[in-house]
Please model this.
Amino acid sequence: MESAILRLILFEREKIDEDKFFKILRAGFLSPRKYLLNNLEKGGVIKKEEGEKIFNQLGFSPKIRAQELSVEDWRKIYFTI
Model:
């Protein structure tokens, strides 16, 4: 008979405001062929100047589109806004 011992490590998840997170996502995908920065401004999430600072801080090009971001990138945007 073989046996194994498992050790479970529970990670505490970061608390997010789902309404805010999905508002950012919806705004980001408003017009998929447009740049993310313009969509976020048009969706009322951020002002363009503020967005440029945030994108620069996160190392994102101002010409990035929503579909080019990973889930982790969206998380970074959420916690920076």
